[in-house]
Every structure is written in C-alpha cells, then in structure tokens.
Design a protein that fits this description.
The complex is a heterodimer. Chain A is α/β, with parallel strands linked by helices. Chain A folds into 2 domains: 223 residues, Rossmann fold (3-Layer(aba) Sandwich), CATH 3.40.50; 34 residues, no CATH class. Chain A has 8 helices and 13 strands. Chain B folds into 2 domains: 202 residues, HUPs (Rossmann fold, 3-Layer(aba) Sandwich), CATH 3.40.50; 132 residues, Rossmann fold (3-Layer(aba) Sandwich). In chain B, β2 and β3 form a beta hairpin. The longest helix of chain B is centred in the last third of the chain and has 24 residues. The chains are: A alpha/beta, B alpha/beta. The interface between A and B is large, with 92 and 112 residues. β13 of chain A pairs parallel with β18 of chain B, so a sheet runs across the interface. The complex binds flavin-adenine dinucleotide (FAD) and adenosine monophosphate. Adenosine monophosphate binds next to α1, β4, α3, β6 and α4 of chain A.
C-alpha cells in the first residue's frame, strides 16, 4: 500500500464579496473560506491512486485553526488522515518559509511514497511551494503532471511543457504538482459522508484521524518561519486602476444595425482592428 | 572576466529552440542593468547549443555563460538545477538579480534554486524595477535598515485586483520569474558584441532520478492563448459544444487568432481546458478579445480585462461583462457572430482598397 501525502490549503473565496476590503485587500478573518480549487485536482489524483493501487492518503494543511475545515472536506472525498499545522509563528510566511514548515511536517510523519500538491493557490498564486518542499526533502519532482501510472516502485508521468509534453519515469519517493488539465474534476464523495460526520463526533476517533501540530511538535525552528523566516516582504500594494473600458453598448435595434454601428464606431475610434483581419 | 554585478537571465531552450520568453527576459534585464549601471549575463544550458549564444547577445546579453553537456539534451529538473548551481558556484559572488520565465520550465526550476540558496523568489512578475527601500519592521532587528538599488518585483495579487511590490533585499540573488508575453523584448541587434564562455558541470547520480522517455512537441495542437493577437472566446451562453463552431468561424476572419473559453464552457466538456481564460486558466492580453455568451464573472474578468479592445455579445443587457468591455452588443450571439464576421471582412477590404489607392 502506498503512502500518499496531499498538501491542501484553505484560501479566501474570491467569488464572495464578504471580507473584501474597499481597497481590494482581503480581510481573512471575515472572508468566506474554501479549499484552494487547484488542490481538488491533487486530492482527486490521490483518491484515484488509492482506488487503483491501494494507498493511505494523508492530507496536510498549514493555516489558522479554521483550516481544519478543508481536512474534513478531504475526508468526505476519501482521505484517511489529516494533519493541521497551526502556530502563531507561521503567520505571514512567504513560499520559502511555508515550504520549510511543510517539509518539517513530512519529517515528522515519516516514510512516504508520493507527495501531491496543487499546481498553485488562488491567494499565494506562485506554484512555488511544491518544488520548494521537494528541494528541502531532496527528492525528485514532476510539476504540471497531467497523467500518471504506477508499476512497482516506478511511476510514469506526463508533464506539460509549452508546445507539447514530456513523458517521464521516476522512482518513488517523488513530489508531484497536479495540472488542472489532468482530468476534468469529477471527484465525487467517495467516503460515506455520514460515517465521516459520525467519527468526527467521537473524540477518540477524531484524534486518531486529525492531528493538530505546532512548530515545536514537528521540531521546526520558529525563526525560519513567519515574517522573520521569510526572505521576501510585501513593500507596497496598490489598487489596479479600473480595468477594462467604459462600455459603448449597442442594443434595441436589429442585430444587423447593431453590428453595423459597432463596426462604424470601431473604425471611428481608430483601434486598428482592420489590420488584424484577413483580407 | 565576468562582472559580478551583472543582472542574470537564465535562458530557456527546448530541444535547441530558444523560447520567446528568453528574449523578453533579456529586454527586462537590460532595463534593470541600465539603472544599476551594469551589464547582463545570460546562462545557457543544454547540449549542442553553442549557436544560440550569439543570438542571446543580439537579444541584449553582454556575456553568455554556457553549460553544454550530453546529459542536458532534454530538460529535467535535477540536471538543469545542477547546471545552474554549477554556474552560480563558479561566479563565487552571487549576482544581485536572477530572472527566469514563469513557464512550465521556469516555474519548475526557479523554486528549487531559490530554496537551495535560501533566497526570495517572486513569481509571475508583470513589472520589474530598481529602487530603494527602508525596512522598519521590528519583528527581526537584524533586518532593519535602508537598502538602495534593490529589485522591485511587481506582480498582481488577489485575483489581479491589486498590485504588490515584493522585495528581498537581504540576500543575493534576488530572484523573480516573469509572466509570458509581458516584458518587452529589444529589437534584435546583430551588430552587438559580447563574450561567451563555458563552465563545466559535475553531476551526481541523484541528478538522474527522473528520465525522459520522450518529449512530444505538437505546436499545432497547442493553444497559444498568451501569444495570439486576437482571442474569440465562447461561454456557457453557447448552449452546447457545437456552439464553438460559430466561435471558430468568427476567429477565422482574423490573421492571428485562437479560440478561448470560460470555465463553465470547459467544465461542461465542450472544449479542452487548454482554452480556458481566467483565474484558473490563462491570463491573456490580446489586441482584441471577443466574448460570446460569457457573463463576465470576476474569475473570468481577471484573466482578460487587460486586453486592448474587448467586444462582448450577450443577450442580457445587465450582464457584468458590459461593465468592463469596451464595446457591447445586446442580443443573440448566434445572430451577432456571423454578422460580425461579415462586417469585419468588409471593413478590412474597404480599408485595403483605400490603402492601395
Ligand atoms: C475559484 C474559482 C475559479 C474560477 N476560475 C475561472 C476561470 O479561470 N475562468 C472562468 O471563465 N471562470 C472561472 N470561474 C467561474 C466563474 O465564476 C463563472 O462561473 C464562469 O466564468 C461563468 O462562465 P460563463 O460566463 O460562460 O457562464 P454564465 O455565467 O452562465 O454566463 C453565460 C452568459 O451567456 C449569456 N447568453 C446565454 N445565451 C446567449 C445567447 N444565445 N446569446 C448571447 N448570450 C447568451 C447569458 O446571458 C449569460 O450572461 C471560477 C470560479 C471559481 C469559484
Ligand atoms: N499553507 C499551506 N498548507 C498546505 N499546502 C500548501 C500551503 N501553501 C501552499 N500549499 C501547497 O502548495 C501548492 C502551491 O501553492 P503556492 O505556491 O502558494 O501557489 C498548493 O496548491 C498546495 O498544494
């Protein structure tokens, strides 16, 4: 049975207006929360491997205490165990500091065969944390992985590159970042949702399934996380000017007339559209 | 020989083809180097790639440092990682700035280099600049101070509603990746002169943990959303996969166009993910973006709102897309798209006649 670790993150829900400050910044305390959409693909891949080859799936998340919600969601999709790393000293970690803390969780958990991460997050939006964990652990990685199969301890994978793809082979352990072109997301709730609710109610079982750990418990150095441990800072942020245009709208008449007027206006505005059209 | 203060670009080639991003990076690096009063060094890694070195100089490099080895014929993370580290160790003092592309290769390699060196890395920058910074943070007194002529790595954040300036002045190199199609390449100057030299690399067995069975390049099957001048996109308003025939037909009237899509159209299985524009798809800024049957949800908007001309057709006059498009037509896209095609072709013909006269 393979041991799979999936890194998942709770992010602010950008489609809800709650918690978005007038200046465009996110008030994380008030914002609605959700599982990073990219991590669903990683989770789906883990569950696919579990069903095809047999695996124990542990999801790991780092964040404030409410982040435990994404672990519960992962159980409903068939994950077996969850780990929440939460500690005041991890707040405001950049990718290097995040990867440092997360690789310490791996040390704490012990042996593994495959680590899966999402391609990127919708809040950090860097795609860096996965490869930085792999570097810390000194293991091989396959990023932008679209498809994979396993035979013994060998893993074959297809990786996207600009203008094509690579077919790769690697021996486990390996870290994989899952492209969302992998497979359309169809992950259903594989586990019994009622059973998950039930075990969460039993303190003993809950404790067996969800571990909450601090930096001290995993033996991580608090000076290498958070603001102090991050080599980068955000120096300044500013709102992007109102993007897009003020719309000239054509409506009410026949489509023929509307299109004709639009073309007339495009011409009058001198946007150079005609140069892009085949003659 | 090499100026230790040079701004560094890591060139990107795939099977001997220099990738467009490299030219963009060299353009950006020259801008920074001028402000720092220094030069540009370019790392070139691969096998049988010496002919590319001269091109890199024409694109703006003053110096090209080459690692050429049969083991580097195909890109793999660990072998290329070793080669970049070999050059950096060869340089002795770390360069102030190292730039790479936010491509499938750059985003694979750059974070490993940054983690190895324990330096900062800013992803997906849309602007780069040089400036000063005073760090007042008290969390760590050893970081406090004023820093001059450091890299400003500027990138969109929070779904592109904000811009953030990211700084990492404490340790060199300051690293950044830049988004495809954003940085300005310089005009190619075939009279430019520069130096080329080689650096050897010693691999370790661990570097070969991943093997490339094959690299498949299928340019015809790829969707060049970030490079095309015109994007015609279809959304859920198409009603079915067949609706994309209308989208494709309108796209065919343009010289350099590709078909885009909203996530709802992709999730409906009407068109592959490679066509998706938006927060979880591609960020694009073509000269013309035509949205057919797309409502203009924020996650779609952030991926295309910087297009030069946005034209939207939607039957709902209150659709959010009309809040930020430049031109909008309220109506049924199945009527509008064919008419648009006809009128655009007519306009181009008339314009052509005028130009010819
Ligand atoms: C985390 C997250 C990430 C996301 N990422 C993306 C992303 O990357 N890209 C993306 O696009 N979306 C993304 N979405 C989804 C986004 O919120 C919207 O659901 C999606 O963009 C809607 O697609 P649509 O406009 O095609 O569909 P709809 O919102 O259903 O709009 C269809 C439109 O078509 C119009 N219409 C219907 N019939 C016709 C007709 N015959 N003629 C003309 N108009 C017609 C309707 O009036 C309507 O405005 C994301 C969502 C989340 C939560
Ligand atoms: N705080 C976190 N907790 C768990 N996983 C994370 C965290 N941050 C990032 N990751 C993982 O790293 C991937 C890339 O994130 P990012 O580099 O922030 O774009 C995500 O898709 C997650 O799988």
């Amino acid at each position: 049975m393979f041991k799979i670790i999936v890194f998942i993150k709770q992010v602010p829900d950008t489609s809800s207006k709650a918690g978005v400050n007038p200046d465009g910044t996110i008030d994380r305390a008030r914002a609605k929360r959700m599982l990073n959409p990219f991590d669903r693909y990683a989770l789906q891949k883990a569950i696919e491997i579990k069903r095809a080859y047999g695996a124990e799936v542990t999801c790991v998340t780092m964040g404030p205490p409410p982040a435990v919600e994404v672990l519960v969601e992962a159980f409903e999709h068939g994950a077996d165990y969850g780990v929440l790393l939460t500690d005041k000293r991890i707040a405001a970690s950049d990718t290097l500091a995040t990867a440092y803390a997360l690789h310490k969780v791996i040390h704490h958990l012990g042996e593994f065969d495959i680590i899966l991460t999402g391609l990127q997050t919708t809040d950090g939006d860097t795609a860096q944390v996965g490869p930085q964990i792999a570097e810390r652990l000194n293991i091989a990685q396959i990023t932008y992985c679209e498809a994979l199969s396993i035979s013994g301890k060998k893993l074959s994978a297809r990786r996207v590159v600009e203008g094509g793809h690579q077919e790769l082979e690697v021996s486990m352990p390996v870290l994989i970042t899952v492209a969302n072109s992998a497979t359309p997301l169809d992950y259903k709730r594989f586990a019994d949702v009622a059973a998950v609710k039930e075990f969460l109610r039993q303190p003993q079982e809950r404790e067996r399934r969800i571990k909450t750990v601090s930096l001290d418990i995993i033996g991580a150095d608090g000076t290498r996380t958070g603001l102090v441990g991050s080599p980068t800072v955000v120096g300044k942020t500013w709102k992007l000017g109102e993007i897009g245009g003020s719309c000239t709208l054509f409506q009410g008449e026949s489509p023929e007339r509307e299109v004709e007027e639009l073309i007339g206006k495009l011409r009058a505005d001198g946007k150079g559209v005609e140069e892009l059209v085949n003659v | 020989m090499s100026n230790p203060n040079n701004v560094v670009v890591v060139a990107e080639q795939l099977q001997g083809d220099l990738q467009q991003i490299t030219q963009e990076l060299l353009g950006a690096a020259r801008g920074l180097a001028e402000k720092l009063n220094t030069g540009v060094s370019c790392f070139l890694i691969g096998h049988n790639i010496m002919p590319l070195a001269e091109k890199l100089i024409h694109y703006g490099a003053d110096e090209v440092i080459v690692v050429d080895d049969p083991q580097l014929k195909e890109y793999t993370t660990l072998t290329y990682r070793r080669a970049v580290i070999a050059i950096l160790e060869h340089l002795k003092t770390p360069p102030p700035i190292v730039l790479m592309g936010a491509t499938t290769i750059g985003r694979d390699l750059a974070p490993r280099i940054a983690a190895h060196l324990e330096v900062g890395l800013t992803a997906d920058c849309t602007e780069l600049d040089i400036g000063d910074y005073e760090h007042k943070g008290k969390a760590d007194p050893s970081k406090t101070g004023t820093f001059n002529n450091i890299l400003y790595a500027i990138r969109p954040s929070f779904g592109e509603s904000l811009k953030a300036r990211i700084l990492g002045p404490w340790k060199n190199p300051q690293m950044a990746t830049t988004r495809i199609g954003v940085m300005q390449a310089l005009p190619v100057d075939t009279t430019r002169k520069g130096t080329v030299h080689k650096v050897p690399v010693t691999f370790q067995t661990d570097d070969f943990r991943v093997t490339v069975v094959k690299t498949v390049r299928d340019v015809s099957a790829t969707v060049n959303l970030t490079g095309a001048k015109v994007i015609v996109s279809g959304g859920f308003g198409l009603g079915s996969a067949d609706g994309f025939a209308v989208v494709r037909d309108l796209a065919s009237v343009f010289k350099d166009s590709v078909v885009g899509a909203s996530r709802r159209a992709v999730d409906s299985g009407w068109i592959p993910y490679a066509h998706q524009v938006g927060q979880t798809g591609k960020t694009v800024r073509p000269d013309i973006y035509i949205a057919l049957g797309i409502s203009g949800a924020i996650q779609h908007r952030v991926g295309m709102a910087h297009s030069k001309v946005i034209i939207a057709a939607n039957k709902d006059a209150d659709a959010p897309i009309f809040k930020f498009a430049h031109y909008g037509i309220v109506g049924d896209l199945y009527h509008i798209a064919p008419l648009l095609k006809k009128e655009l072709a007519k306009m181009a013909r008339e314009q052509g006649i005028k130009a010819g006269a």
